[in-house]
Amino acid sequence: MGMLEGKVALVTGGGRGIGRGIALSLAASGAKVVVNDLGAGLAGDGRDSGPAEETLAAIKAQGGKAVINGGSVADYDAANAMIEQALDTFGGLDIVVHAAGVLRDRMIFNMSEEEWDIVNAVHLKGLFNVLRPATARMRQQKGGRIISLASGSAYGDAGQPNYSAAKAGIIGLSYSTANAMAKYGVTSNVVLPTGTTRMIDSKPESKKIHDETGKWPSEHAKGTPKDPDNVAPLVTFLASDRAASVNGQVFSSYGFGYTLIEPPRTLARLEGDTAWTPEGLANAYDSYMAADMKPRPAMPFARDVDDLTPEDWTEIGEKRRYWVRKEDSK
Ligand SMILES: NC(=O)c1ccc[n+]([C@@H]2O[C@H](COP(=O)([O-])OP(=O)(O)OC[C@H]3O[C@@H](n4cnc5c(N)ncnc54)[C@H](O)[C@@H]3O)[C@@H](O)[C@H]2O)c1
């Protein structure tokens, strides 16, 4: 019996890329899936039922159950209809995965209002739009799993101000939902995924690879550490009963591994018995707060494990290993 037998899932953006792999994995583990996908271009333009239909066919081919939904997560009523469709078709809703996404990269000083709005509408408002009805249902039934895809860009990609803000907003909304819904047995976690999909093909360096090899990077990814399907096992675990105690966490997925990310923690503090002057604070910042350390910039992010040496890892068999940060004394 699969880990998700008897469960019903909604996967937004399930027609392509990382969402497609997640929809297939949830179905392979026994969940009945509503595969939502607008079939939009990378910039959010147009619509096409083809990608969702292709995922549906792949799920059916592996013996799973699914239906498609072609609505936009950016549309509040359409998002409500996704939850209704899950209830009407499969009689429940246990899992929501928000993987729909678009890109409109531009430096902050050149960004148009439309570029800002559409990216935030799909990623951040889209998450609210599905969570509003989904959490109402999950609160009643006292159970549910929410997995939201954010991005390492949440920590400040210079060329993606709209996307960075939306993804940081997703982390905040997920933390809030985790805190609000814990008492109803509902968990909310974030995954910062990676995978060479068309999103990565759109980067300028990918064009070079295409010119040199005749293939886009996404066409080289299958079975490699860059395969977008590598994200699905983590999401499937988080969607299962086995993850009942995993709540309010942020994971990153890259390569054949998963990183658990600590929430921001206090680094240093200055205090007085009375209020500070700006000059006094400036002096104390230089002399004490930042004297013995260099506060790290927001990026690069979650890749500090790349600096570990082979001795830092503990082998656990079957060519797998782990590393856990030792708790500091304080
Ligand atoms: N690929 C990566 O390396 C990477 C890195 C960090 C974060 N992410 C995030 O992972 C998620 C999936 O990305 P991907 O690389 O698989 O992208 P993708 O473009 O391959 O797939 C995204 C899907 O979302 C759909 N979509 C777009 N707007 C929609 C809307 N309004 N309503 C419903 N569906 C809509 C698209 O039609 C598309 O099929 C996104 O949230 C993305 O921001 C991806």
Automatic annotation (TrEMBL):
Positions of the UniProt region annotated as Disordered: 197-229
GO MF, one annotated term: oxidoreductase activity
Residues covered by the Ketoreductase domain: 7-187
InterPro entries, A to Z: KR_dom (IPR057326), NAD(P)-bd_dom_sf (IPR036291), Peroxisomal_Beta-Oxidation (IPR051687), Sc_DH/Rdtase_CS (IPR020904), SDR_fam (IPR002347)
Pfam families, A to Z: adh_short
Gene3D superfamilies documented for this protein: NAD(P)-binding Rossmann-like Domain (3.40.50.720)
Record keywords, A-Z: Oxidoreductase, Plasmid
Biased composition regions of type Basic and acidic residues, renumbered to the chain: 200-229
Keyword presence, Mitochondrion: no
SMART domains in UniProt: PKS_KR
Entry-linked PROSITE patterns: ADH_SHORT (PS00061)
Assigned protein family: Belongs to the short-chain dehydrogenases/reductases (SDR) family.
UniProt name for this protein: 3-oxoacyl-ACP reductase
